[in-house]
Structures are given as structure tokens and as C-alpha cells.
## 1
Amino acid sequence: MQCRNILVQLGISTAVLVIFLFVQNGYENSIRKSLKFMQIQVNQFQEAINSNDKVDQPPKVDIELQKQDKVPNENLPSRSKSNFNPPQIFHEWHNCIMPNLTNYREENPTNNDWIWKNLPKVMQQCQGILMNDTIKVDDFRNNDETKRHILPLNEDELTTIITLGVGRDTVAEENLLKALKGPSKFYGADPIYEINAEKYNKFGTFFNFGIGAESGMFNLSVLIGRDYAIRLLPTISLVHFVKDILKINFIDDIWIDNEGAEYNLFPYFLKDGELDRNNITVCQCNLEAHSPNNEMKRKFHEFIFQTLNDKRYALLLPVSIASHLRIYLVNFGNEKCLKKYAKL
Ligand SMILES: *[C@@H]1O[C@H](CO)[C@@H](O)[C@H](O)[C@H]1NC(C)=O
Ligand SMILES: *[C@@H]1O[C@H](CO)[C@@H](O)[C@H](O)[C@H]1NC(C)=O
Ligand SMILES: *[C@@H]1O[C@H](CO)[C@@H](O)[C@H](O)[C@H]1NC(C)=O
Ligand SMILES: *[C@@H]1O[C@H](CO)[C@@H](O)[C@H](O)[C@H]1NC(C)=O
């Protein structure tokens, strides 16, 4: 209890500090700039970004991801009995994508680089197999990107969306809400309260903390005024958030755009990873991987090959932009997801 109070206190005082810094940095001028966060270990800062208007990336800092990976334990029995075999069409997709990737399977800097650069082309070549008839993916645009989502075949079913990193922009969520005929629940988390809370609470529930692989106080990169700055802010693990706070175990779509924190979340999605171990199902996921250094490229490479090896998520609709890569994952290894979204 005591601990929680301290966390809350810290959260409040940090929010106050952030608001104060906002004012200092000419908050009004930058009201429409997106505000995102990144969970990093700061080793050293270089020059802050120059003060021209365009802020679409965090400043270049020399970062090292905090050591908090949950390596799936081979000996742990999976609690979600996912012996479910994906449908034939998924195997066709898999057989299409694998031959172009297998030569790059070994993890080394050259292959990690190759995957980061060339995966999009290979994905695009195969996605028609699943997207022509089996699933109908719709686009939901916000101010700087497009989120993908399949609407439920039975439109009366509940849709549960989680947004990690609200970034002052809820246009895609609102567009999706308009398209949904049935009930929906939107849960958004961002360590910055200003603007995000007000916007998100109009249609969903806003949570004022970062979400990462683990709970704790972490140095996050947040945009304050026009500049990204590092702030020590409360972070909650994704599993704790879903299981203990939301108390749900079925997520229709999770939108991950948290400026670097995504790399440590990759292992969550693997077979026998944190989600499986907690019986949490994710049907769809919009994932943005941000400006990787070599270690992040290695993590990305590992994530892609393990995901392909799991034969659960299809990798679709890549977008390479600036130094980011957006991919869209659809779960073909879960019966409930398939019934809800796929025409088989
Ligand atoms: C994948 O491999 C096939 C067969 O070798 C080739 O024709 C095709 O161009 C490759 N696609 C990409 C995106 O590299
Ligand atoms: C998907 O549809 C497009 C357009 O009709 C077609 O060109 C393409 O060959 C189809 N792809 C597959 C794998 O069926
Ligand atoms: C956050 O960053 C500050 C400044 O670099 C450092 O002193 C502190 O140890 C960091 N805290 C955590 C929890 O990483
Ligand atoms: C796992 O979740 C499903 C619903 O998604 C439920 O039917 C099942 O009983 C749960 N299993 C365990 C072991 O909690």
C-alpha cells in the first residue's frame, strides 16, 4: 500500500514537473506535436535536436536497452494450451515467406541489417494470400500513420483495443469507433497526462503510466514542448496491466507505438512467452519498431524468426518510414481469433 502511494505521489509530482516544463518550452506552439515515450538507459546525450519545426524522431542518444528481457523458459509448461493448428491458408503464406528469408536466419550484424531493410518487400509479396479472401483488413488513419484492424465478422461482438503510447493523437481510435457496430472497450496508456487523458477519456479509459516489459520507475524519453527529454516515470508491465488492472485475457488489437519500449516487449508475443504463460490472447497487433541501433536490430531479427517458427502470427502490411518500421500481426493460431475474424 505504502509503495503504491509513493508511486502515485511520484506520478503526480512528475506530471507537475512535466507540465511546468511544457510551459517553459513554449507549449502552445507545439500543441499538435506528438508526444511519445521510450524506455531507455541513457548513457550519454548528444546535442538536443535542432529547433526546426519537424519533430518526428527522438534525438539521437546513445542508448542501451535495459536488461529486462523475459527469455521464454523452455521448461515451463504453456498454460494456454495452444496446440491449435493454423488453417491451411496460413501454411501457404508461411511457405511463401520462408524461402526468401531462410538464408538470413543466422543472427549476425549483416543478416540483422538485411532483415530490417528487406523484410517489408518479402512480406508484401506474400500478404495477398491471406488478405485477398481470408481476412478483410481496414485502415484507420490518424495524423501521421495508419492503424490496421479487421472488424468482427459478427458485428455484435465486443471489441477490446489497447493503445500503448497515445501520443496526443486519437484520430485512428475515433475512426475505428465509428466503424464498429458492436460494443467496444478502448484502454490507452501514456506516461504523459496532458492532452492524452482528455482525448482518450472521450471514448475510452486513459491510464497515466508507461507500459513496458517490467514494472518500475524507468527513464523514459518523452516529448516536452518541441524536445524529447528523459524523465523518470512510472511504468507498468504489460502483463500486470492486462491481467491485474484491466482484468481481461482477450485483446482484439493492441497498438504499440512507444518509441523504443517495444523491443523489450517482443518476447511477450512468442510461444510460451509472457502472454501465453498468463493465458492472454492477442488477435491483432499494430507494432511500430523505432530507429534501431545494432542491438535493437538483433532483437528485431530474433523476434521475426521466432514468430515465424511459432507459426501463430502472420506478418502483414509493412510500412518503412524514416527509420521506423510498422508491421501488422494477425493471430492465425487461436481458434477464438479465427472464428471472430477469418473467413475459412
Ligand atoms: C523471393 O524469391 C523469389 C525466388 O527466388 C524471387 O523471385 C523473388 O524476387 C524474391 N522476393 C524478394 C522480395 O526478394
Ligand atoms: C490477390 O489479388 C490481387 C488483385 O486481385 C491479385 O493480383 C493477386 O494475384 C492475388 N494474390 C493471391 C496470392 O491470390
Ligand atoms: C535515470 O537517469 C538518470 C540520469 O542519467 C540516472 O542517474 C538514473 O540512475 C536513471 N534511473 C534509472 C531508474 O534508470
Ligand atoms: C484461458 O482463457 C480462456 C478464455 O480466453 C478460458 O476459456 C480458459 O478457461 C482460460 N484458461 C486458464 C487456464 O485460465
## 2
Amino acid sequence: MNKAVDVPLKLRESIIDLAEHVERPAPPGADTEKLVSRIKALLKQQNAVIIAHYYTEEHLQVLADETGGHVADSLSMADFGNRHPATTLVIVGVKFMGETAKILNPEKRVLMPDLDATCSLDLACPVEEFSAFCDEHPDRKVVVYANTSAAVKARADWVVTSSNAVDIVNHLKEKGEKIIFAPDKHLGHYVQQQTGADMINWQGFCVVHDEFRAQELKELKEKNPGAAVLVHPESPEDVIELADVVGSTTKLINAARDSKADTLIVATDYGIFHKMKEAAPGKKLLVAPTGGISPTCTMCAHCPWMAMNSLEKLAHVLETGANEIHVDEDIRKKAVVPIQRMLEFSNQFKQAKNKQQPVPA
Ligand code: SF4
């Protein structure tokens, strides 16, 4: 069974409206060098480390790497923050990533450059409605994507990321479980197709990936014979169908490195090109077409909320301690359970795969 729960049109419209009106900071100016040195000094002084997402601006990713921090997908960001000895984690990404870091590290200070940097998937899954819906289906395991609020995670049995969603749902299916999957409709549909699990999918959407267009992608492929198409599973089904590789941001970067093709057409946020260029130097990277060729394009393959992060804001929070993430302790205690479950599963799964052993029960 693959049923769907629609997000009300009004909520959808208000999310798009919010995304369209995000104020994007100006690109780094002449004082960048000074600002970077100040941030480096502050990181040392505050025993802080930067953990940035692949979708953030290139200069922020460079700074994270230069200062011993980490640039990664949300699973690896959580894992790194958990293992790193710094007492302050500066999460350069969007709010659910900061919350996840705090949930896993309650003793650490977690700062974010801008607390208004959110995610359309998080916004499309309000906890009251979602919780009431789960209560109507007590026979189903609740599986939520990492792109959700701490309160939604607290209501879940499992948290997943795009790196492990298929493996975790397969694992649950093998145990005979039925599933509620939230909030991304395209990822939910993809996971259901890959696993054949009995799922009800919440119909949230990513404002960036939802805009990739299949017809235009076909035309771009025809113009670039031999190009490989790399697609993130938050994209629409007809775009996924055209992919040579479907997967998480990390999987797509590895695919860019390993692909025999010289040209890669990429359907995810183009912030990923920084790490793809490092992994696959010399290859030509093309952004998959979005609604941008029509008047409906709003995001054009770059997340408006990821783009809110800047060097100025980073320096400001390190200097002032502003924008600290706090998570209610009751919620945190509940939310940490499905996150830890995911991290343990992923580690065991990786080990079992390396040893070619059966996956743990
Ligand atoms: S790219 Fe999409 S899924 Fe990622 S943070 Fe932005 S809105 Fe959310």
C-alpha cells in the first residue's frame, strides 16, 4: 500500500511565499580576509568548530575545512558533532541541523549564524497535525526524515536521512512493520518503490528539488550525449527516472568521482559543486534544469535558507554567543532515541556490509 496525506494548499502557498522572500546576504566583499582571520581567532578562543552542509556557500565550506571543521550531509554532520571534542558547535546549515546537534550534544553550546534559516520540509510538517495523524494509525512505525523539527522527531520511532532511508525501511519491512513516512513526498515515494514497504507518505516537499523538470532534463541530456545524470531523491519521480545515480549528497559526490562520464548533470542544490569539483576535478558540472526556464522558478537549484548563512553572521555569533540553539529537555530526551537508533543502525549496517555479513536484526 502507498497512501498519501496531503499538505493543505494554504500551507504550501505560505511556505513558497516565505522561501521567495528570504533575504540573501551579499557575497563576501573586500574585507573578507580580515573577517576570516577574526573568525579563525574566535574559533580557537571559544573552543569551537564549524560543521557546514554541502549546500552552503563555497567560502563557508572552505573555511570549515581550513579550520579543522567538517563539510558533509546531515547524517555525517550529526556524527561529526557527536564525536568532536569542541565545546561549541557552529552549525552552518539550517535549523533542524542545529537542533539535531543539540539533541545529541546537550552539554555543548550549539550556535547558528541565522535562526531563521529553516527548511520547507520542516515547515510542511507541523507537530500537532502530524502527531494527531500518527495517533490515528497506532499500528504503524513512524519514520521521519532528518529534515524535521525536534518535536516531530520526538514523536517518531525512527529518524532517517537520504543516505539510509531505503536500508532502514527495508529493515522494518523485513520485520513485518507498516510505516508512516514524513515529510518528503518524493523521497517517500522513492523509498516505497525501492522497498515495496506498506507506507503512508506525508506530502511535504523541498522547494529546491521539487522544481527540477524532466522534459527539460531530457533535452539537456540530448544536447550532452554521454553525460551522466545524478539525482537527489527529493526530486520528482519523472526526474528520478532519468537518473544514472540516485542518492544522498555524499553518494552523488562519490558518483561524480567514480563516473566515467566527463559531463555530469546534477539535480540537487548547486552548493554541492564545491565538493564535486574537489572530488572530480576537470569534469564539467551542469545544473539540472528547474522551473527557471518558466516563470515559476523561485529557487533555481539553490536553497534560500542555506544561502542565509554568511561570514558576517558567523563572526557575530562567535563574538556575542547569539543564536544559541535550545531544545526543551523533555522533547530532547524523546527525540534522541530515534536519532541514536538511526546512527547505531547505520554504523552496524556499514560494518556488516564491509564484512559482507547479514544485516543485524
Ligand atoms: S534544500 Fe530543500 S530539503 Fe534542503 S534545507 Fe533547503 S528546503 Fe530543506
## 3
Amino acid sequence: MALDNGIYIPNLCALRDKPEPAAACRLCFVEVEGKEQPVTACTETVTEGMVVNTRGAKALKLARTGLELLIASHPVDCAYCPANRSCELQVMARHLGVKLKSKRFRKLLHELPIDDSNPLFIYNPNKCVLCGRCVWVCRERLGIGAFGFAHRGFERVVTTFGDEPMGKYDCPDCGECISVCPTGALAFKDGKGTKIKTGVESGSDDGKLQSA
Ligand code: SF4
Ligand code: SF4
Ligand code: FES
């Protein structure tokens, strides 16, 4: 509802046609009138007369911390990244007033090999934010299921079944996963193609929403 009304709420794991929110990224906090603590917007059911503030101080503080934790394990080399200027981390950082080079948390980076075995795209797992959009789109929207999550904790990664190179997998090269990826983790080799905008950039909205 917020995005449809031009009000941006930071988000990574949500997709408009995904019925069950994963609520994995913990970035979409909002404040709902009558509730003491912020809630995740993607899991909150809209009710009649509900008043939502997307710019409440408590909600923004939680979202900022979430983003800073995320970029503590993200290689921020935007100038050389295929997602530069279409990256949702950049949009979110601007919206929340967070520096992508923030040093609030100790940097702990993955050093995983980049997979360029597919003729169409490159997969850089070091830039994956584990939002799960590509996994869901490939499995649920397209019925293919080329990849999924493996391992736990810091080792958690998106990979193919059997951890085979992307190029070895029977992928129709539709590019859907690339279009929903919010970062430079999945990118077209020719630098073309579009990333969908799941949210609008913060503009002149006052962050207030009221349902009818
Ligand atoms: S994925 Fe986004 S934040 Fe990360 S390096 Fe690329 S443009 Fe920068
Ligand atoms: S590859 Fe992209 S879309 Fe897939 S989980 Fe990682 S960041 Fe999300
Ligand atoms: S979009 Fe709500 S938790 Fe990720």
C-alpha cells in the first residue's frame, strides 16, 4: 500500500506478487498508532482506520542499524559495480542517512569466487544480501528452482543444487532473477537489462499513511 502511494519504506525481501512475506531483512520497520514498538511493514495487515508513520524515530533507528549491519559484510565498491545507480542499498542508504562506508560495525567480508560460467550473467555471492528474491522468483513465479539457500549463519549463501557453477545448471536464461536482485550480486554480462524498482525513492512524502 505504501509503495503504491509513493511512500518509500526500506525493504529487501519483499516482492509485490509474493503472498507470504519472508520478513528476513528486518529493514521495513514502521510505527503504527496504538502500538508501542515498531513493526515490520511487510507482515502487518492493513486494518480500517490504521495510521502508519514510516518516518518514526524508533522505526528509522532500527532500519539504520539493520542496514549498517548488512553493509558491514558487504564489499562497497560502487564505482566498479554493475548495479551502481540502480542499487537498492544506495537508495536505502540515502533514505536513511547512512553512509555505505559506515564504520559503526567491524567489517567482515566474504571472499567467495565470482561465478561467470553462465553466458548471460555474473553471480557475485559477495554482494548477495540474502534477500531471497531470486530464489522465490525462479521457484514460485517460473516453476524452475535453479537455486536456493545453503548453509547457516555467516556461511549462508545462495547457490545451485550441488553447488554447481550457474552455467552448468539447466537455466533458460530468462533473466528474471537478475531483474529482481536489489544489488550487484546478479548482473547481466553486457551491462544491459533493467532492475525492477520495488520501491520508489524517498521524495516529498511525509511518511504518513491512513487506511480508509
Ligand atoms: S551492490 Fe550496491 S552498494 Fe554494493 S557495491 Fe554494488 S552499487 Fe555499491
Ligand atoms: S543474489 Fe540478489 S536476489 Fe538473490 S538473494 Fe542475493 S541479493 Fe537477493
Ligand atoms: S521487507 Fe519486511 S522484513 Fe524484509
